[in-house]
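Hi both,

Apologies for the delay on this - the queue was longer than expected. I finally got the pyridoxal-5'-phosphate-bound model through. Below you'll find the protein sequence and the ligand SMILES exactly as submitted, and right after that the structure tokens for the full complex including the ligand.
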Amino acid sequence: MAQRNLEWYSVHTYGVALREMAQRNVEWYSVHKNSVALCEMAQRNVEWHSLHTNSVALPDPYTIFVFADLFDILVFLISVDSHPLQMETAAQEILTDKTINPVFQRAYNVRGWVNTRAYEIKHEMALGERKPFDEVVIHYGDPHAFGQSPITFLRQCLACLLCPQFLNDPQFPKDVKEKARRILKATPGFAISSYTNTFGLRLIREDVAKYISRRDGYPADVDDVILTNGGAIGIQIGLASLGTDMPNGKLKPGLMIPIPVFPQYKSRIVEFNLYEIPYYLEEENNWSFNIGEMKKAIDKARPHCEPRGLVLINPGNPTGQILSYDNIREVIKFCVREKLVLFADEVYQETVFIKGVPFHSCRKVLRDLGSEYNDFQLMSLNSASKGFYGECGLRGGYLELVGFSNAVKSQFRDMMSPSVSGSTIGQAAMSLICCPPQPGDESYEIFIQEKTAILESYERKAKITTAMLNSLEGVTCNEVTGALYAFPRIRLPQKAIEEAKRNNHNPDGFYCWQLMETTGIVPTPGENYGQKEGTYHFRLTILPSEEKIAPMYERLSKFHKEFMDKYKDNKEN
Ligand SMILES: Cc1ncc(COP(=O)(O)O)c(C=O)c1O
């Protein structure tokens, strides 16, 4: 042993040797006679030495031997014998559902249980289970998932960006190739796959600023524009900025959100430890804002939080309403009085299709209010996912920071810098949305045809949807004027409510679940968005194709009638 300079250790259970061996990844074996370790060592022709004190190994000057009493050795050998390669300290689960960051513990699935069940049903069908329907149709706001075709010029341009050889291909329109070349020139290395700076390519931010200027009639500043991976990241960074560390027993920062609300807001409130201040949209007044109610809501919350921001969603999700100019102006004034940053989620600004019901941006209304409002702070959100473009998966979007100092904007940059840069394809999509083909461009005609066809189809489907819903017993629905959704109220019979409670479900969740299991149509229950106590709703999207929508609504109407008959309140009972 001395000649071969082997290291060996006693196996005293309390010895430091084992720990040290573990740290140094030294292999070791128990030496129990029946040990599997011995067999393995024999197979591998490994020599081993007994621990007998008279062993020839002991006098070896190069070994470290910590003598252990025989009892300790015995206990140890018995305990480890069946795990010959096990170290003294077994690997432990460090991160459990109880020790994981509390932010993760607080997180919840914003899509809800009905949606989870919908995916289970899809899986069951894929495994061959028979259902009373052929297809599961989940009603979410993803136009291409419903078969809506992408806008041609946008995809052609992306094709040129990804395969620059198409830049010389005569099949691609000239204006498309020019747009692609212009974007590529702005990238490092004439390559769409390069990183960009944190806020995105300056050229594209300029495109966005020009789009905003055209839209509002007031110049926008390129330095106010941050390109984001979809609207979701704009929400994340915007709301994150409103949080505080709350040192010295300060109150939580409060955020006013409309109810019903796009569920992402609730989950970000949980994530950033904000205090939710719900304000209810007025359903009977076409889901408009009621400033008196908003004032009551903030006054009630003030003892519990320090209100810092207000979220407005226009056009609305899930409500499908477009706010009037006056309503927006009132909200801006309310924010001034209450010292709130306004977070305007305007991702559906291009998804307006009813003549005479235009979209007004918060920024335009703000600028119309005059220079007195120059210091007003507004964050305005847009996305490539919605509208007739519907490019959900490309992850394009922007956040405009209006009225924020350069110091704050550079703090946004610092905060976002670890993410390196946004998706370049998403950035390019945003550029193309902001710079569509113009009259005289080769791709203009097709672009206008495609855009008009999609918006006209939305208009027809919105009307059919509103009419169908209003024809159902106990259901009322405001006209769908924008965004992609109808959010009807349903007055459920008492028996249905009781049955839902027996099943531990919210009544509208129960209704949606039953509808899904019977027809394959998957609406989202009102409970996911929040609603006034004692009222029930569900959300449908107008996105299914016109061929599919009529038979789908027939199935829905038939189910509804059967459901209402089954749970009819029987006055005689
Ligand atoms: C109101 C609203 N805001 C923001 C988003 C975020 O969309 P995306 O992250 O796809 O841009 C959505 C998506 O449905 C939405 O409905």
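Main takeaway for now: The CA atoms of residues 384 and 505 lie 35 Å apart.

I'll put the files on the shared drive as well.

H.
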